[in-house]
């Protein structure tokens, strides 16, 4: 089990995607719920109206990894910053060469790779695990590499390895790490295999383990099962063959982030399994994993999720609200407003953001996609997570805290 426990960042059902929020591409363009919300809240002394500032980076989808962030622009290209390329901190947004015609992107806090899918079902990846099938292990790629030999994909999900869901319901897997996640046929690395999932898979998600949902509402999980985190009740440390998760309902959506999985169904209380740092709305810290699904009524109004220390969601007014473990002392609130144990116990509005589409949290920083499509970030900046052009230096009391949020510029 990893030393750190990561938590979900949860986005309300009406919001757009965030931090690899992992919806199908056609679901990203949500209805204009707040057409009058044009003004930009000041941040770090910035009083410029974002609608008039050409330097602001804008996007239609935002994803955040452990120490990285990428934004998909309407033009179909992608800009990334932070540790999007392992070993090379990038403090300012950098265009990913070769990423063109992209309609959906995904990343994970594991830092393995970021991938994008085109309208034709082509898959491009950069970072680690981006080498073509059959290639030997290579240094991380700064350019988007087309994954050759892959059938047209509906979308890609990244975790310890990469997965693609195809139109016929098959799931393919490739990468260098932890072959168990790619099923029983994964041998010497690198590998490309079809995972033996049940027929009729309509949804796929991945973190430390992977899960698939069928058209019958069944949920099947496999991969890393240390501490029983797949929720299947199995005791083996690795599951190479998907096993069914015992749910009391037919699921219509699944979410997997880090070492936690959740299933949702209309009119039913959501059920979750695996590790999580704190259930929302409670003081109860989980010290042991949930090996089978348990009811989490606090998730009843929540649908989207991504990895990070605290919990965040976008309410129906478009306000970002966060609570939970304030890891860097300023992801949820400023250090002066953080209690000694660093737990914020009630949802706290990040009003400095104004109206937002989505919010995404990494290890020690967070970013949000505002209503005007601009990107704002806050928190620590050790690896360029804030995209502000600088890298912070470790001081005697740790890295500086940047709060309130500030816009990301080219």
SSE diagram, text form:
Elements: E1 7-12, E2 61-64, E3 68-72, E4 78-82, E5 90-95, E6 102-106, E7 114-118, E8 123-127, E9 141-146, E10 153-158, E11 162-166, E12 171-175, E13 191-195, E14 201-206, E15 209-214, E16 219-224, E17 238-244, E18 253-257, E19 260-264, E20 271-274, E21 290-295, E22 302-308, E23 310-314, E24 320-325, E25 343-349, E26 356-361, E27 365-370, E28 375-379, E29 402-407
Antiparallel strand pairs: 1-22, 2-3, 3-4, 4-5, 6-7, 7-8, 8-9, 10-11, 11-12, 12-13, 14-15, 15-16, 16-17, 18-19, 19-20, 20-21, 23-24, 24-25, 26-27, 27-28, 28-29
Structural summary, described in words:
- The protein has 410 residues and is mainly beta.
- The protein has one domain: Methylamine Dehydrogenase, Chain H, CATH 2.130.10.30.
- Helices cover 0% and strands 39% of the residues.
- The chain is built from no helices and 29 strands.
- The protein has strands at residues 7-12, 61-64, 68-72, 78-82, 90-95, 102-106, 114-118, 123-127, 141-146, 153-158, 162-166, 171-175, 191-195, 201-206, 209-214, 219-224, 238-244, 253-257, 260-264, 271-274, 290-295, 302-308, 310-314, 320-325, 343-349, 356-361, 365-370, 375-379, 402-407.
- The protein has a 4-stranded antiparallel β-sheet with strand order 2-3-4-5, with no helix packed on it. A 4-stranded antiparallel β-sheet has the order 6-7-8-9, with no helix packed on it. Strands 10-11-12-13 form a 4-stranded antiparallel β-sheet, with no helix packed on it.
- A hairpin with a 2-residue loop joins strand 18 (253-257) and strand 19 (260-264).
- It is globular.
- It starts with 6 loop residues before the first strand and ends with a strand.
């Amino acid at each position: 089990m990893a030393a750190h426990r990561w938590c979900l960042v949860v986005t309300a059902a009406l919001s757009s995607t965030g931090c690899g929020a992992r919806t199908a591409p056609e679901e990203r363009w949500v209805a204009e719920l707040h057409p009058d919300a044009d003004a930009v809240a000041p941040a770090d002394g910035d009083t410029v109206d974002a609608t008039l500032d050409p330097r602001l980076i804008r996007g239609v989808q935002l994803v955040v990894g452990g120490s990285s962030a990428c934004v998909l622009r309407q033009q179909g290209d992608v800009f990334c910053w932070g540790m999007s390329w392992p070993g090379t901190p990038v403090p300012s947004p950098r265009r990913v060469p070769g990423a063109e015609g992209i309609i959906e992107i995904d990343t994970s806090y594991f830092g393995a790779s970021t991938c994008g899918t085109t309208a034709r079902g082509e898959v491009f990846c950069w970072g680690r695990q981006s080498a073509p099938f059959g290639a030997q292990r290579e240094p991380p790629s700064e350019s988007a590499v087309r994954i050759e030999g892959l059938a047209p994909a509906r979308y890609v999900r990244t975790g310890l390895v990469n997965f693609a869901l195809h139109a016929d319901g098959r799931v393919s897997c490739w990468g260098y790490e932890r072959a168990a996640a790619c099923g029983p046929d994964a041998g010497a690395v690198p590998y490309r295999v079809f995972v033996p999932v049940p027929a009729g898979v309509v949804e796929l998600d991945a973190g430390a383990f992977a899960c698939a949902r069928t058209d019958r509402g069944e949920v099947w999980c496999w991969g890393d099962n240390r501490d029983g985190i797949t929720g299947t009740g199995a005791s083996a440390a690795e599951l190479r063959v998907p096993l069914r998760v015992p749910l009391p309902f037919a699921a219509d959506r699944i979410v997997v982030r880090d070492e936690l999985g959740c299933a949702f169904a209309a009119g039913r209380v959501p059920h979750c399994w695996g590790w999580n740092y704190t259930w929302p709305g409670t003081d109860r810290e989980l010290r042991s994993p949930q090996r089978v699904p348990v009811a989490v009524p606090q998730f009843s109004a929540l649908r989207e999720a991504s990895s990070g220390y605290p919990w965040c969601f976008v309410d129906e007014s478009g306000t970002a609200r966060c609570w939970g473990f304030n890891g860097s002392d300023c992801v949820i609130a400023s250090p002066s407003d953080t209690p000694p144990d660093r737990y914020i116990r009630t949802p706290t509005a990040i009003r400095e953001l104004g109206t937002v589409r989505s919010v995404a949290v990494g290890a020690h920083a967070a970013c949000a996609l505002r209503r005007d499509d601009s990107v704002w970030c806050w928190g620590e900046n050790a690896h360029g997570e804030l995209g502000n052009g600088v890298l912070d230096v470790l001081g005697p009391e740790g890295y500086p805290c940047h709060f309130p949020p500030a816009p990301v510029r080219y």
